[in-house]
Write a structure and sequence with these properties.
The protein is α+β, with helices and mostly antiparallel strands and about 475 residues long. The protein has helices spanning about 20-30, 55-70, 75-85, 95, 325-335, 340-350, 365-375; strands spanning about 90, 110-115, 115-120, 135-140, 145, 150-155, 155-165, 170-175, 175-180, 195-200, 205-210, 225-235, 235-240, 245, 255-265, 270-275, 280, 285-290, 295-300, 305-310, 380-385, 390-395, 405-410, 415-420, 450-455, 455-465. α1 (about 20-30) runs parallel beside α2 (about 55-70).
């Protein structure tokens, strides 16, 4: 907001605090999706910022993310140019792009990372019962995908995201295009000869990749090159156009191969690859049904050539499978609860997962909340990182009539159900009979609880941690 767009933080902490492998890992993940990724601390001999000094699990996870950071350089460099030339910050709040959306002002723990990615790092410890961290995300209107898993998500909704230590919530819009370097086994910083292109179907998209020599100021004299990448989406087809490069092609490798990873599509009936209008027969494709992703390997072509890829399926090319049941089963496997309780929950998992017996009274509160928010798409979230204005986010994406919210005040130790007060965040897609009202400020000194009920069973509860004023 104040024009400081290229910043960093001392990953792991500079001094004070406590050395924790989990915190260090989460900090590395946040750093990977920050303008500058910098691990730093004081000269205290008891502090160590080497990933290999935090244990085997931390090393494995941080290695993967640091390698991802290196592969992201083509995207980061292109976005850095936009920051330098046009003032578009690499990290920016949601209200920069969605100034008219009320929700954009009430999601301070997420941000746009460049023009193509939305990031919401985990900032809480893993829960001892679910063994996962939790974050709440508002996705703007449109179709969205999980960047890593390829799961399709609806926009203009709030979502509770749960993840293990090796996961971080990152999302992209339908139509997104991200250029990455394919090779990550060295520290080279030159323009890559092997490119990986991440594309997400469902809408038209366009991206301009920028390259120069990376060392000098020759770009001021026009010594740079841009490659325009487009995807044109239709119900039965997808056309991808890459280049040709514009500008000083001497900044491009003489030969360049491409690996395209295209999410959100089914298996194409036909695939055609053209290099400067000549049909290529050497391209190799494979399809992963679990992630709904096509992988297309295009061998090295002259760096100044244009490529065009055409995918078709007469029955429809898009694929946006509902993965709720699969996600519930993965989470159930992670839960640290008695086996008998796991079996009871597992038996209740039906294809539509809208089964009330899924949430048993015997489950720990965090487990019930996790299953409720995932299966029934309803939840509550208390945000207190804005010290002068804490607030609640409540949502019921499916508009389920059996889901209700109740505000309760503590009165001499008893919980009293009252009509809900006015909150700072507008509830989205709530039933008309909901007691929640339009937005207003929630007092930081109020003594309250908000309870999510389904069929009169408490699914989730948040208590204001602030004590009453003296």
């Amino acid at each position: 907001n104040v024009g400081c767009t290229w910043w960093s933080h001392d990953i792991g902490g500079h001094f004070h605090g406590m050395e924790e492998p989990e915190l260090f890992t989460r900090w590395i993940q946040f750093g990977v999706f920050s303008p500058i990724n910098r691990m730093h601390c004081s000269k205290d001999p008891n502090r160590d910022r080497h990933p290999w000094g935090k244990g085997v699990e931390t090393l494995a996870i941080t290695r993967e993310f640091l390698q991802l950071r290196h592969r992201l350089v083509p995207y980061l460099y292109s976005e850095a140019r936009l920051c330098s030339q046009e003032g578009h910050a690499l990290c920016r709040p949601m209200y920069h792009e969605h100034a008219d959306a009320e929700e954009a002002y009430w999601c301070p723990q997420q941000y746009m990372f460049g023009s193509q990615m939305l990031v919401a790092p985990f900032v809480e410890r893993r829960d001892p019962d679910t063994t996962m961290s939790r974050q709440t995300v508002w996705l703007p209107p449109g179709q969205w995908y999980d960047f890593f898993s390829g799961e399709a998500l609806h926009g203009d909704q709030w979502h509770a995201i749960y993840g293990s230590l090796e996961e971080i919530p990152v999302f992209v819009r339908a139509g997104a295009i991200l250029p990455l370097a394919r090779c990550h086994q060295n520290n080279r910083t030159g323009n890559p000869e092997q490119m990986e292109l991440r594309l997400f179907a469902g809408a038209d998209g366009e991206y301009e990749m920028y390259e120069d020599d990376g060392d000098s100021m020759a770009w001021r004299d026009g010594q740079s090159v841009t490659t325009r990448i487009r995807q044109i989406w239709r119900e039965h087809s997808l056309t991808i156009k890459i280049g040709p490069p514009q500008g000083n092609s001497g900044n491009c490798p003489g030969q360049r191969s491409w690996c395209l990873l295209i999410g959100g599509i089914g298996r194409p009936e036909t695939i055609a690859v053209l290099s400067d209008r000549d049909q290529l027969t050497e391209a190799v494709s494979s399809y992963d049904q679990e992630t709904e992703r096509l992988r297309l390997e295009i061998p090295a072509q002259p760096g100044n050539h244009a490529l065009e890829i055409k995918l078709k399926n007469r029955a429809g090319l898009g694929s946006r499978r509902d993965r709720t049941l699969e996600k519930c089963r993965r989470m159930l496997y992670r839960f640290l609860i008695p086996a008998a309780l796991k079996n009871r929950i597992g038996q209740a998992l039906q294809p539509n997962v809208d089964n009330q017996s899924l949430i048993t009274a015997a489950a720990p509160p965090s487990v019930k909340r996790c299953l409720t928010e995932t299966c029934f798409k309803a939840g509550i979230h208390y945000v207190d990182c804005l010290a002068d204005n804490p607030f609640l986010v409540v949502w019921n994406n499916q508009g389920g009539e059996n889901t209700h919210y109740h505000y309760c005040r503590r009165d001499q130790g008893n919980m009293v159900v009252e009509p809900a007060p006015k909150f700072t965040v507008i509830p989205t897609h709530l039933p008309a009979e909901s007691a929640l009202q339009p937005p207003a400020r929630l007092s930081n000194r109020a003594v309250w609880s908000l309870i999510l009920l389904r069929e009169n069973m408490v699914m989730a509860r948040i208590d204001n941690p602030q004590p009453p004023s003296p």
